[in-house]
Amino acid sequence: MIFTYNKEHVGDVLMVIAADNQGAKLSAERKGNVARVYREDNGQTVAWNIFELSNLFEIVERGQVQLTDEQVATLNQELTKEGFAAELVKDPEPKFVVGEILEMVAHPDSDHLNICQVQVAADKTVQIVAGAPNARVGLKTIVALPGAMMPKGNLIFPGELRGEKSFGMMCSPRELQLPNAPQKRGIIELADSETVGTAFDPAKHWQS
Predict the structure, then answer these.
(1) pTM of structure
(2) Superfamily grouping for domain 2-82
(3) Which of 52, 129, 144, 177 has the CB geometry, 3.0–4.6 Å to 148, for a possible disulfide?
């Protein structure tokens, strides 16, 4: 789940993104200060809005926020109080991590995309379709995994590019809005000494 909050521009509401709506038509039901957003075609919950959040607890961050176990428990109490039989689950794993390209083959239906096998943890490799001109086997870079929110607000979900499954995105300095990022295509290139699976730290992983 993705938790996002911006009191200045959105208001005192915590938005919880639970699933990709895949372009489906949405409806919402509200009980008290809780609203459930769901797909009309199958009833799947894709988001929750928690209004008047400051009555429950304070958040000082903006954009994607990481909640404590206690804060998530408070939200679940609020859902129960309003009559929703659902539970919000906190995902403790980092969503921006160091990854390494282990394999790369040309996309069969594209002249610029590649299908990459990217190691994102000691025991986890994911497939990512990418068009970065500097992608190559052995390169270490920053990967946005499903559940990540990019600085511009777009969300990362599993998907497909021209028929090939993709489970994340390898990021450019510009996409991560890093200071003095070069205004050209290409994913961020990290030192070979970086450890796969390490959470992204701009101060450590970028020197402008």
Answers:
(1) 0.79
(2) YtpR-like (3.30.1940.10)
(3) 144
